[in-house]
Amino acid sequence: MKTLRNLLLCAVSLLAVGCLDDNTPKDVVGEICVFVSAETGVMYDLFDSNQEYPIECMLVMSEDNPGVWEPLRFGAIDGFTYERGHEYYLRVVRTILANPPADAPDRTYSLKSIIEDRLIAEPEVPIEPEVKSEEDIEYQELCPFDKYSIYPRYVVDAEGNIYSAEGGIVPPYDVARIYLKNILHQADPNWVVFQTVPYQATYSYVISPLADEIRLVRNERSGPMFKNVIPNEEFTYITEKMDAGTELCYTIILANVHKMGLQKLELIIKKI
Question: Is the dihedral of CA 230, 84, 199, 212 positive or negative?
Fold first, then answer.
């Protein structure tokens, strides 16, 4: 009888475990098709609760959520490399995680196949000939606005070292960046609109005190590179020929993916 009782207890335990396993949440895995926009958008880190540091990202629309473009970080689709200016139609394996990490998305993607890859626009677009002065720059609707700020003053010595106006060391010329900071307050009545693609600073028009023409540079992820705003020949002039104590004022007009103006900023460079 004791042996029979033990066998019955084991059977009940196995049955209970089986029932528990059936009720345990499981990942949902399936293949879907997604569109990836030629334009990029912005997203924010999970820990950036004030949304002060926008991160450039892909815009993706899935077949089971038509009409809705959702942000997705670069590299989020395993096996897929995004190129700006390309529009994609992909087949991917999507896994919706039953127990996602607290600091990560609740789904993952891996590339199954690229159904279509179309070049919509070159990522680096040359400046239009008619933009010969600041007055030629057409502004996006609701602009100019005060969404972005930059650190406004830098000093440069004869050896080419770059410092903040307070004396802090800046990375070397080749890798230094002029970071864009999102300062728009969420109480602004246009806050939601200003987070959309037409109001993202994709390009910068640069008006240099040392050149006649206006240059168009790409801002990349966090802002324009220092060397693109101040090209090598101008930086050489500042370091080697400009008198100590002299200042130059560069004008940076941020522009969207359509090269329409958003906001005007000034950058002061002082020789020490």
Answer: positive
